[in-house]
Amino acid sequence: MPHIIVDHRESRSAVIQALRADPAVTLEVKELSCGDYLVREDVAIERKSATDFVLSIFDQRLFQQVARLKQEFARPIFVVEGDVFKTRSQISPQSLQGAISYLVAVEGVTLLTYDSPAQTAALIATMARHLQDGLGYEVPTRAAKPKLGPDTAQFLLEGLPGCGPKTAKTLVSTFGSPLAAFNASVEELCKVPGVGKKTAERFRDALTWRAATEA
Length: 215
Hints:
Elements: E1 3-7, H1 14-20, E2 26-30, E3 37-40, E4 43-49, H2 50-58, H3 61-72, E5 75-81, H4 93-106, E6 110-114, H5 117-133, H6 150-157, H7 165-175, H8 178-183, H9 186-190, H10 197-214
Parallel strand pairs: 1-2, 4-5, 5-6
Antiparallel strand pairs: 1-3, 3-4
Helix pairs in contact: 1-5, 6-7
């Protein structure tokens, strides 16, 4: 049964009430350093109302949260409830679009919008089930395979957990080849811009997983 960890600040939200009513998941409420819901140890969901999302852009709080989430988790996800363009705010629609584009296109953050806490709860439960129990059928992890060249190097490195296109390109430019990046130590990986200690450890764990299980 999928297990979801919830930050204690969400303990009175309508989302956690809906999740508690779902017999297909189990919940654990605790204090999290960042994020509101953990649907897997490396996947964190930050939930915001449309108003809070816009205000957090205005006071720069959102970008600080993004930085912390990316440092702690391979896959940070923001779920916004409501229409951000219908809130009363001093931010112009153009500036709001720019901030959203920056989060998604530059920072690589997943941003989802829903109408209600009930929809958010259903999404969280479904994500937890897919990530912890699987889909119930096998799908190719990466279907499209590039021809030999720079794209191949990026393709190989993007197979590492939490390694997006930007990080993959930085690893190639830093180490010169995918093989050199794969052979790098945690300490060497931590020197790469955008790669924190937890991410570097996830890289090494992924690369040594087979040898560790066969030992």
